[in-house]
Amino acid sequence: MARYTQLFTIATPLDRFRQLLEDVLQSCNCAVIYDGEDYMVAREKPGGVTYAQLVTVEVLIDKTAIATPKDEVRMNVVVKNEELPLKSDNHCWRMFSLVNRAVAENNHWNLLSSTAG
Q1: Would you say which domain of life the source belongs to (predicted)?
Q2: How far apart are alpha carbons 110 and 87 in whole angstroms?
Q3: Range of the domain at 95
Q4: How far apart are alpha carbons 80 and 2 in whole angstroms?
Q5: Element containing residue 81 per DSSP (H, E)
Q6: In which residue ranges of the chain is pLDDT below 70?
Q7: Residues 22-44 pLDDT 10s
């Protein structure tokens, strides 16, 4: 199973964060299938790759970290699928890069930090 993680800290109004995150995931051809208070899951829309290559994006949202300003959100993004990562440039890695770029370049929030997991 291929699996890649990235930890982001962003500054954004919390009342808009969930919608902005959903928009980012949709821009990456993913549909949100679960939206909890501190967890969001999106699945890549079928059609472009085999079923085993379809990517799931899990976002763990940490708004309660000690010493975190009010409008700062930490999120751990996990991109995974069922394919074996036999090559370093596999579909899961490409989708991981696409999601990271979409988060980092979003004009509706400020990226404060990004760390590979």
Answers
A1: Bacteria
A2: 33
A3: 2-116
A4: 5
A5: strand 72-81
A6: 63-69
A7: 999 999 999 999 999 899 999 99
Element (H, E) at 23: helix 14-27
Name which of 13, 19, 9, 22 is nearest 76 in CA terms: 9
pTM of the model: 0.90
Number of domains the chain is built from: 1
Question: What pLDDT, on the 0 to 100 scale, is given for residue 15?
Answer: 83
pLDDT at residue number 13: 84
User: What residue type is assigned to position 93 of the chain?
Assistant: W
CATH number at residue 72: 3.30.530.20
What pLDDT, on the 0 to 100 scale, is given for residue 69? 64
**Among candidate residues 102, 76, 105, the one with its CA nearest the CA of residue 8:** 76
Distance separating the N- and C-terminal Cα atoms of the chain: 16
How far apart, in Å, are the Cα atoms of 63 and each of 3, 8, 26, 36, 91? Answer: 24, 12, 22, 13, 31
Q: Is 81 exposed, middle or buried (0-12, 13-18, 19+ CB in 10 A)?
A: buried
Which of 6, 13, 5, 4 has its CA nearest to residue 63? 13
